[in-house]
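chain below, 150 aa
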Amino acid sequence: MTLGNFSRVTEFILLGLSDRRELQILFFAFFFLAYAMVLLGNLLIIVTVKVDPKLSSPMYFLLCNLSFIDICCTSVTSPRMLVDLLSQRKTIAFEDCIAQLFFLHFVGATEMFLLTVMAYDRYTAICKPLHYTAIMSQQVHLCNHFYNER
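prediction:
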């Protein structure tokens, strides 16, 4: 009979940037302001692209999706950090940590895929300008049409 270590990690203790309450409040204010600016800026881009009919090209459709992904990416980690800056007990459950890591990697991979599609769009626009409308309308028109119906 072999004995092993059967201990299980249930939570992580987050040490943070500082132990001083004054600095924690200053960091909270700074990061909250930065988070709010990211949300408002990206929402402004999304609303502008949706409202203005002149911005219906594939590049603006992709830019709108990039703004949405940026909102998702910052919303995965920032709210938890803001809560932890003000709370006395700075711990995160193991399952919450794994879920946060999963969503951060998922959104990051989605962003890389979208940036690749945006690079292909620009490549097509620059290297094949006469074929651009035919190529991008075939591939993106269905996605853009579905997006605008919502």
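Strands lie at 11-13, 91-93. The two ends are 62 Å apart (CA to CA).
thats it, cya
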